[in-house]
Amino acid sequence: MSQPRPKYKRIVLKLSGEALREPGSRDNISPQIVHSIAQQIKEIHGLGVEIALVVGGGNIWRGLSASQRGMDRATADYMGMLATVMNGLALQSELEAIEVQTRVQTAIEMKGVAESFIRRRAMRHMELGRVVIFVAGTGNPFFSTDTTAALRASEMGAEVILKATKVDGIYDSDPKKNPKAKRYKTLTFGEALTKRLQVMDATAFSLCMDNKVPIIVFDMMERKNIRDAVLGKPVGTIVTGD
Q1: Span 24-53, mean pLDDT?
Q2: Most CB contacts within 10 A, which of 27, 100, 162, 211?
């Protein structure tokens, strides 16, 4: 049987830090969840897709929350960036264990731990079939990892951002509070702005809109969703410029 042809050749997969934690567990990183994510990445890697990952750090530290409790915002954000490095290394370890070559690139220089971010080197890694994991955000405080994903997708020439979350798409209201909330299958950037839907933070959303990078928001807990999204099957909600 022939191998399915992916719709997207080069992607950025955005993972929240919270996605790496088992609900209700005291452990910040679940080895079982990391293994499951790595297996799904290996599956789409086997289709010939060039993959970059951007991972958050909210399972370990949330800079914004700390700043709201009185900590200096810039310091809190730098601590959050370091948390993303820990998550990135966990993903790298699991991917390498299942024979997927990876490179971790950091926006904050830390020799002996990860490569410093260099755009052309990252692109070359992807061309050679290595999964590139971008950590430490943009290297600057006051920017979210959503913005990092939008920035790196634009820099790498990615065809789409796959935003893996704990909900199955974008709704017109909070589905946890409103059982009648409507899930959108497709949205334009303009509609998302007009309806004030929280797709990404404003900076990230503007970058995607300006650079015409579509966003697919989906539930990462469904085992086949990442693969289905790459193959162009209807998954979650897609936000485009059309």
Answers
A1: 94
A2: 162
